[in-house]
Amino acid sequence: MKKNSVIGGRTSKLSLGNYFFDMGPSSLTMPHQLTSLFMNSNRNLHDYLTLLPIDPLYRLFFSIW
Fold it and tell me: Which of 31, 47, 52, 56 is most buried when burial is the number of CB atoms within 10 A of its CB?
């Protein structure tokens, strides 16, 4: 596994100019929140994204030394 180039791992952020982007999580567990955001912006989520189910939803691996 390759380490990230920045400190923070799954909780790191990306800075582009005056904007900041959360770099985690890798799955969307509450799609209704995203749908609501698009609806409040008078947009249709499905015009921009295709949501697919993930099975298993989430897996983490830790090495044991």
Answer: 31
Please give the Cα distance from 13 to 43 (Å, whole number): 26
Q: What is the pTM of this model?
A: 0.47
The letter for the amino acid at 22 is D
Contacting residues for 51 by C-beta, under 8 A, at least 6 apart: 28, 31, 45
- Provide the residue-wise pLDDT of the chain in tens; the chain has 65 residues: 566 676 666 677 888 999 988 776 666 778 889 899 999 999 999 999 888 887 887 777 888 87
Cα–Cα nearest to 8, from 23, 26, 29: 23
